[in-house]
Input
Amino acid sequence: MNRSPAVSGFFYPAKKDELLQHVRLCFLDRRIGPGSLPEPKPSPLESPVGLISPHAGYVYSGPVAAWGYLEVARFGRPETVIVIGPNHTGLGKRVGVWRSGKWITPLGEVEVDEETADLILENSEYAEEDTLSHIREHSIEVQLPFLQFVFQNFSIVPICLMDQGPKVSADLAKALKVVMERKKSVLIVASTDLNHYEDQNTTLRKDSLIIDAIEKGDANLLYTYLAQEDVSVCGYGGIAVLLNLGFKERKVLKHATSGDVSGDYLEVVGYLSAIMYS
Output
């Protein structure tokens, strides 16, 4: 089964040329973006890499996302990209894995890595084959044009989390460790926005707690901050999966808010790019 884009023309341009130009400008943005275009290392990734990347409309979060993809390009080209996104729609399975077929964007088709999907399904207690959770979900889709812009050729495994609790994140990390032992050229993307719809100062404070947990590599601390400080991170499960994978190095690349783009600081959303590697 192939998946057609659900949010092209809304979160990002629907026409190929306009989308390429928009992504290009996200990289070249010198105010919030990195200000330069990626130059991918020609060789494959030599070891797995984790990435935290935002998933709002490109006009708001695109320049922050560009930081992550610029940095990943320096490590090499992934053969497989596993993208973990939260379930915003309430449709589908608890942990939905799109197992086969292609995902389509205005930049072309991306093949689903069926072998890796099966490996995850075989080694996870909670993951199930599912397409319904993905049909209208944007959090995974919006990562693909950036990946296509930078790397062109790769396969994907989309994973949509309705349950983002500690047991699920630990279980999924266990399954991904099996993948990482067998495949070195794998990029794992946790698609998430940070605190939602509070004022700038509150969001900066709450986001700093999430960044602290990431820098310490502590999934339990992440869940503690979420509960005690009421931080409304939408894709925290994907972050927890990355933290449970035990990457030795964790580097925050860029943090900003929607207010930094719009100038409206009364109700903002936080965006983060961070990379993890060993």
Notes: The mean pLDDT is 98. The two ends are 35 Å apart (CA to CA). The first strand starts at residue 49 and ends at 53. The CA atoms of residues 47 and 184 lie 5 Å apart.
